[in-house]
Design a protein that fits this description.
512 residues, alpha+beta, DNA Methylphosphotriester Repair Domain, Arc Repressor Mutant, subunit A, TATA-Binding Protein, 4-stranded mixed sheet, globular
Length: 512
């Protein structure tokens, strides 16, 4: 995209590009999202930046009208497998705040200098500046939605000192912290109890929240997750516990109501954190779970032109490819689901959570426990693992490898290296690896030709369902085959709820 194209997007206030780039205006000294409702500036006065941090580094402050810091993230950072994409995922998860630039570089296998150079060359800002922009956004959120003391907010947002916090807020928003807080009426701010925060999770394009809630409800682990009736008519709420770097949380995300415009642009969310320093990480992981940084218009345009999937896309625009809040948890659950129904896997996961998970100090509705760590499950008693010996060996081997770092599944890992490491483990085959690439590693282009749901979905659409034919059909769906898989699963479950078995990954375990 060149600058003239960017300016046309600004002139038309095209919200599809919010978060993809930022517009800085030399005559006002502010930067905006492309859809800012203010009068369109003259082309000669506009500069364009790939990140908010780059605009801030050039001396621009955030527009108080369009709040460019609250836009969805660029879809590139979810999907790109190169160094920049991997770095942005780790920065989003708060790694720089917890481990510094050296820790980030070490995770990525580069020197700090190499990382700084590459990020600055492409994004206009290095890792510290990118993390600083993220901290500023967290600070604004806490200032304007809670009555927390300013000192507490400074450290909760990740700043090392109150002075650094004050300076950053002034530079980014051209306001003191108290002035920024005063922009929101006191009646609209919440008195925080045990870290409770209400916020909006922004998204772009259409969102089929029914698909997301259905998908999560079907797989909800008892005690860890639940879907309940929301406060508004026709709204369902997804709730779960979160294990986080400094503590834990209970998260609630409301779906959209039946009469709500799917392009509304946000989901309502509530977080109860035991440590407010986990705010940024919790929000990032929930966004990944609901795939809120995706570009559904790009996905639906490609899949909607396909003769097999086109009618499905037009009937239900905005289907997402859900990620997960914890790749280790997802890996465990993927192995538990080998060769059994979704319901059976969910039941077994709930039993393991009750046996090896950390209980909440106080239950919240149906939530009572954190999902067990892989270290705890690696030492699980054989009698607690009600499964064939081959799958038990696969599970304990996977948990051991994740616990000791032999296998990594965090956002900074190289996908090809992670796949190779997983396939070296006993009982881990192509379906499990593909499922983890799709959900844990945010790969948008994974197809599961041996999956039962994929087969049933294709058969419902009048197509051949055998793996070879399915893989051939799916070639035209690249680079969005993960989204096509969800279309097929949804089609299959519309008639037969997803009780089918998955694949023959366990064959490898029996032979190993």
């Amino acid at each position: 995209m060149d600058d003239d194209t960017r300016y046309r997007a600004v002139d038309s206030r095209d919200a599809r590009f919010d978060g993809v780039f930022f517009t800085a205006v030399s005559t006002t000294g502010i930067y905006c999202r492309p859809s800012c409702p203010a009068v369109t500036p003259k082309r000669v006065n506009c500069s364009f930046y790939p990140t908010a941090a780059a605009a801030q580094g050039a001396g621009y402050r955030a527009c108080r009208r369009c709040r460019p810091d609250s836009v969805p993230g660029s879809p590139e950072w979810n999907h790109r497998a190169d160094l920049v994409g991997r770095a942005m995922r780790l920065i989003g998860d708060g790694v720089v705040d917890r481990e510094g630039v050296a820790g980030l570089a070490d995770r990525l296998g580069y020197s700090s200098r190499q990382l700084q150079r590459q990020l600055t060359a492409e994004l206009g800002a290095g890792p510290l500046a990118l993390a600083r922009a993220q901290r500023a956004q967290a600070a604004r959120l806490l200032l304007q939605t809670t009555e927390l003391p300013v000192t507490e907010i400074a450290f909760a947002a990740g700043f090392a000192s109150v002075r650094q916090f004050n300076e950053t807020v002034r530079e980014v928003y051209d306001r003191t912290p108290s002035g920024l807080r005063a922009e929101v009426a006191a009646g609209r701010r919440n008195t925080v109890r045990a870290g409770s925060i209400s916020l909006r999770l922004a998204y772009r394009g259409a969102l089929d929240s029914e698909h997301l809630i259905d998908f999560l409800a079907l797989r909800a682990v008892p005690g860890v997750e639940e879907v309940v009736t929301g406060a508004q008519p026709g709204v369902r709420t997804y709730r779960r516990t979160l294990a986080l770097p400094y503590g834990h949380a209970v998260a609630e995300v409301d779906g959209l109501g039946p009469a709500t415009d799917p392009r509304r642009g946000w989901l309502d969310c509530r977080l109860r954190l035991t440590d407010l320093r986990d705010l940024t990480t919790a929000v990032y992981r929930l966004r990944a779970l609901f795939d809120l940084d995706a570009d559904p218009d790009a996905v639906d345009t490609r899949l909607g032109a396909d003769p097999v999937l086109g009618d499905l896309v037009r009937a239900r625009p905005g289907i997402r490819s859900p990620g997960h809040v914890d790749p280790h948890e997802l890996a465990v659950r993927a192995v538990l689901g080998q060769q059994v129904s979704v319901a059976a896997a969910r039941t077994l996961a709930g039993r393991l959570a009750d046996r090896y998970g950390v209980p909440l100090a106080e239950p919240s509705g149906g939530l009572r426990v954190l999902f067990p760590s892989v270290a705890a499950l690696a030492g699980a008693e054989p009698g607690d693992l009600a499964m064939p010996q081959s799958r038990r060996r696969a599970l304990t081997g996977l948990c051991t490898a994740l616990a000791d770092g032999t296998v990594r599944l965090d956002g900074g890992v190289d996908r090809e290296q992670a796949e190779a490491a997983l396939l070296d483990l006993p009982g881990i085959g192509p379906w499990t690896v593909g499922y983890l690439r799709m959900r844990a590693l945010a790969d948008p282009d994974v197809f599961l030709p041996t999956d039962a749901g994929v087969r049933h979905g294709l058969l419902r659409l009048g197509q051949a369902g055998d793996p070879k034919a399915a893989a051939a059909i799916a070639q035209t769906w690249a680079p969005w085959r993960s989204y096509a898989v969800h279309r097929l699963w949804s089609t299959a479950s519309a008639v037969n709820p997803a009780q089918g078995r998955t694949t023959s990954d366990s064959v490898k375990g029996e032979q190993a």
